[in-house]
């Protein structure tokens, strides 16, 4: 496929997902594909208990909305990638939430490169299906998956924790690389939020069990903030307490905090703790009081390299960059770690082409 055909393949994936969620009539071939995909969605929870059917479908809906023709064209405006592969791109994919590695796969696919993906053991089966849907019957561009170390690649994108990112930086030191580390998202609140905004914030906190870098793990609130409306809003996720691993984390963290004489706020679903750290354990949410908005802005600026999203009312907080409820529905141009993946790949491809022409 050339660049134009690859763009169309992304748009076709949107149409495929739109039909998957539509109850309309299907031909036999498409019905078989949807049945097979439905089986993989149900199997995902067997491979990873955090990948519930609801949250896998939630991720797929988000991708359906991101891959419309208009959004694909907006994302790729100003780029033109070669028709034939010039490099092999290695990708070390995370597995914290369903299809979290799909953006890197799509970015590598649209540039036309050969892809070698070390898939996470926590997300083994979903990404290969989407790779097949994108490639269709293209025999030239290849997307290969492995669970072993990466070999025979020219550049790499790797996502991991702060500890693994240091390993990645050493291991991939001889290659052009884009290395990502831990990030967290925060919410800035005024105490004047509407019920609708708090409902959206509940999604930002609870969706995917709070395991994503775009999930809100900390609140910045004014002194005297009333947490009761927020506790009420998150109760729409009350059913998560029936999830074995979630409730185990809730009970364990509660016991640890109480034995350490930590003051907690809770509603039987979520533990709130006053804490300056950005990251919070599963079933927990940190909060921190602020006195003045200027002080809050300085605090956020000082931690910008560790923050993925700042959720809040953008008419009240200058640094808020995501509306309530939107953290888990990023657009194609909302890059992890705020590093433009396409620019990274474009520069490598151009440098490689320049070196070949010099030879």
Distance between the termini: 27 Å
Tell me how many strands there are. Answer: 11
Biggest sheet statistics? 6 strands, mixed
* Number of domain units: 2
Query: What is the global morphology?
Result: globular
Our estimate of the beta-strand percent is 15-25%
What proportion of the residues is helical, as a percent range? 40-55%
- Separate helix tally: 12
Question: Would you identify the regions where 5 or more consecutive residues have pLDDT less than 50?
Answer: 353-359
Radius of gyration: 22 Å
Secondary structure elements and their pairing?
Layout (H helix, E strand, L loop, with lengths): L2 H18 L7 H20 L5 H14 L2 H8 L11 E5 L9 H10 L2 E5 L7 H10 L7 E4 L8 E5 L2 H10 L5 E4 L3 E5 L6 H12 L9 E7 L5 H7 L9 H16 L4 E3 L4 E4 L9 E7 L2 H10 L4 E5 L29 H18 L1
Parallel strand pairs: 1-2, 1-4, 2-3, 4-5, 6-7, 6-11, 7-10, 9-10
Antiparallel strand pairs: 8-9
């Amino acid at each position: 496929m050339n660049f134009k055909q690859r763009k169309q393949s992304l748009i076709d994936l949107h149409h495929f997902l739109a039909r998957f969620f539509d109850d309309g009539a299907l031909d036999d071939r498409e019905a078989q594909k949807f049945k097979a995909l439905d089986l993989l969605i149900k199997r995902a929870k067997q491979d990873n208990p955090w990948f519930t059917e609801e949250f896998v479908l939630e991720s797929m809906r988000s991708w359906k909305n991101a891959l419309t023709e208009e959004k694909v064209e907006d994302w790729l405006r100003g780029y033109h990638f070669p028709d034939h592969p010039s490099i092999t791109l290695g990708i070390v994919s995370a597995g914290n939430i369903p299809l979290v590695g799909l953006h890197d796969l799509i970015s590598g696919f649209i540039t036309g490169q050969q892809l070698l993906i070390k898939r996470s053991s926590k997300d083994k089966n979903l990404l290969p299906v989407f790779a097949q849907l994108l490639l269709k019957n293209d025999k030239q561009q290849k997307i290969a998956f492995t669970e072993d170390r990466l070999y025979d690649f020219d550049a790499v994108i790797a996502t991991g924790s702060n500890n693994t990112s240091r390993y990645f930086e050493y291991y991939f030191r001889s290659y052009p690389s884009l290395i990502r580390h831990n990030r967290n998202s925060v919410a800035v609140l005024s105490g004047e939020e509407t019920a609708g905004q708090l409902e959206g914030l509940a999604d930002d906190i609870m969706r995917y069990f709070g395991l994503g870098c775009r999930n809100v793990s900390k609140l910045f609130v004014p002194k005297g903030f009333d947490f009761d409306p927020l506790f009420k809003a998150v109760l729409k996720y009350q059913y998560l307490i029936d999830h074995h691993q979630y409730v185990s984390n809730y009970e364990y963290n509660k016991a640890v905090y109480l034995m350490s004489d930590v003051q907690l706020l809770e509603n039987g679903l979520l533990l709130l703790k006053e804490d300056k750290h950005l990251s919070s354990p599963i079933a927990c949410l940190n909060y921190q009081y602020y006195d003045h908005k200027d002080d809050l802005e300085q605090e956020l600026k000082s931690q910008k390299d560790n923050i993925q999203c700042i959720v809040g009312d953008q008419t009240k907080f200058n640094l808020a960059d995501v509306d309530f409820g939107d953290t888990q529905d990023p657009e194609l141009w909302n890059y992890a770690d705020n590093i433009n993946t396409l620019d990274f790949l474009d520069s490598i491809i151009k440098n490689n082409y320049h070196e070949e022409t010099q030879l």
